[in-house]
Design a protein that fits this description.
- The structure holds 2 protein chains of 2 kinds.
- By secondary structure, chain A is mainly β.
- Chain A contains no helices and 12 strands.
- Chain A is globular.
- Chain B is built from no helices and 11 strands.
- Classes of the chains: A mainly beta, B mainly beta.
- At the A-B interface, strand 6 and strand 10 of A face strand 5, strand 9 and strand 10 of B.
Chain lengths: ~120, ~120
């Protein structure tokens, strides 16, 4: 079965510092990969997705992620953190082995804290 | 355009009681998903509908959970009877076609507490 691993359940950065959130996936077929953000008491909002068009994917709010097949990784980065980036971030992959449906398989999430 | 709507936003019940959640997807979206998000974990699929038919309910605890999507639009998820371990946020999502690359749009969720 496919799976997603997010290294680090909690990441803390200073405002203006680089944000790096790690995601590794397991899949024997080309995956579709997603990053979602969840603010407190809200649903998930798509930041960006990889659908094999380009390995470097740019998303909203200045975030981007690079698909590296050799490393089975899809890490999320942002050059300069802002206080408003504090939230929980989820990496997800579409379950290619599920012949029936197209559900997302999520990692456990990484909470990003930003200090001034 | 309006997003995915869910109600209620919060619900507190005693164990063994029943509860129902409602979801209205984005207009025109054929695919509707219900996910369960337990505190500290990522969402996990409960059921997927394509129009008004069930596509995947392999992870739905069918002895207590049921869901329907009448007329291929709104959907209701029911738990009867509830257990303590059902305490979670129940998220509804929809997508236009339901392909593996399609974006799933999520509602704000219903936070269920079972006492």
């Amino acid at each position: 079965a496919q799976s997603v691993t997010q290294l680090g359940s909690h990441v803390s950065v200073s405002e203006g510092a680089l944000v790096l959130l790690r995601c590794n996936y397991s899949s024997s077929v080309p995956p579709y990969l997603f990053w979602y953000v969840q603010y407190p008491n809200q649903g998930l909002q798509l930041l960006l997705k990889y659908t094999s068009a380009a390995t470097l994917v740019k998303g909203i709010n200045g975030f981007e992620a690079e698909f590296k097949k050799s490393e089975t990784s899809f890490h999320l980065t942002k050059p300069s953190a802002h206080m408003s980036d504090a939230a929980e971030y989820f990496c997800a992959v579409t379950d290619a082995f599920n012949q029936a449906g197209t559900a997302l398989i999520f990692g456990k999430g990484t909470t990003l804290s930003v200090s001034s | 355009e309006a997003g995915v709507a869910q109600s209620p936003r919060y619900k507190i019940i005693e164990k063994r009681q029943s509860v129902a959640f409602w979801c209205n997807p984005i207009s025109g979206h054929a695919t509707l998903y219900w996910y369960q998000q337990i505190l500290g974990q990522g969402p996990k699929l409960l059921i997927q509908f394509q129009n008004n038919g069930v596509v995947d309910d392999s992870q739905l605890p069918k002895d207590r959970f049921s869901a329907e999507r009448l007329k291929g639009v709104d959907s209701t998820l029911k738990i009867q009877p509830a257990k303590l371990e059902d305490s979670a946020v129940y998220l509804c999502a929809s997508s236009f076609v339901g392909g593996r690359e399609d974006t799933q749009y999520f509602g704000p969720g219903t936070r269920l507490t079972v006492l």
